[in-house]
C-alpha cells in the first residue's frame, strides 16, 4: 500500500474503533475486537511514523505523526486498564471513579489520534502532489487536479460549450 493510503487507512480504522465502542450489543465479542483493533492502531501509527521519517515531508507532519504514535500507547494503556476493570471501585474526586476518568481520557486521546491522523494524511497527500504550491483565486473552489495518466487516456471532448 502506498504511504498516503496507509495514512488515510489509520483514520478509518480509528473511526471503526469508535463505532465498536458505541455499539451496546454483543459486548464481550466487540470488546475483544476493540482490543485487537487497538493493537492494530498502535502498529499502524508506528508504521506510518517510520515511513514518514524516511521522506522529506515537512517537519510538522513528521512531528504530528510521532505524537499520534506516542498517544496511541497511552490510549492502549488506558484501554487495557479498563478492559481488566482496574479502578472501578476507586473514587478519586467528586464521586468520579478512576475507571470513569480512564474512560474520559481514553476517549479524548482517541479523538486526538483521529484528528491528527486526518491532518497528517491530508498534509502528506498535498505535499506528495505538490498541491500546496498552487494558490487559488479568493472565493473560488477549483476542481480537483486530473492525474496525468487519466488525462492522457481520456482527452477532453471538442463539444461546443452550452449557451447560457
Q: If you average the pLDDT, what whole number results?
A: 88
**Spatial strand order of the main sheet:** 1-2
**Multimeric state of these chains?**
single chain
The major sheet is characterized as:
2 strands, antiparallel
- Described by the principal axes of the CA atoms, the overall outline is elongated
Low-confidence stretches: none
Task: Give the radius of gyration.
Answer: 22 Å
**Span between termini:** 46 Å
Question: What is the H-and-E element order?
Answer: HHHEEHH
Number of helices: 5
Instruction: Provide the helix percentage.
Output: 55-70%
Q: What class do helices, strands and sheet pairing give?
A: mainly alpha
Instruction: Let me know the number of strands.
Output: 2
Approximately how much beta-strand content do the residues carry? under 5%
In a few lines, what is going on in this structure?
The protein is mainly alpha-helical and 164 residues long.
3D architecture notes:
The chain contains 5 helices and 2 strands, in the order H-H-H-E-E-H-H. The mean pLDDT is 88. The protein has a two-stranded antiparallel sheet. Helices cover 67% and strands 3% of the residues.
Features:
164 residues; mainly alpha; two-stranded antiparallel ribbon; 5 helices; 2 strands; 3% strand; elongated
Amino acid at each position: 500500500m502506498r504511504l498516503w493510503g496507509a495514512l488515510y487507512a489509520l483514520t478509518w480504522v480509528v473511526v471503526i474503533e469508535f463505532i465498536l465502542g458505541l455499539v451496546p450489543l454483543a459486548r464481550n465479542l466487540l470488546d475483544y475486537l476493540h482490543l485487537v483493533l487497538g493493537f492494530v492502531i498502535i502498529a499502524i501509527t508506528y508504521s506510518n511514523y517510520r515511513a514518514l521519517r524516511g521522506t522529506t515531508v515537512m517537519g510538522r507532519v513528521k512531528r504530528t505523526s510521532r505524537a499520534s504514535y506516542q498517544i496511541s500507547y497511552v490510549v492502549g494503556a488506558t484501554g487495557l486498564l479498563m478492559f481488566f476493570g482496574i479502578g472501578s471501585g476507586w473514587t478519586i474526586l467528586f464521586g468520579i471513579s478512576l475507571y470513569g476518568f480512564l474512560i474520559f481520557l481514553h476517549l479524548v486521546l482517541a479523538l486526538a489520534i483521529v484528528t491528527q491522523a486526518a491532518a497528517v494524511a491530508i498534509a502528506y497527500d498535498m505535499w506528495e502532489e505538490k498541491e500546496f504550491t498552487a494558490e487559488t483565486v479568493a472565493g473560488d473552489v477549483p476542481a480537483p487536479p486530473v492525474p496525468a495518466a487519466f488525462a492522457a487516456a481520456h482527452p477532453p471532448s471538442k463539444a461546443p460549450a452550452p449557451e447560457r
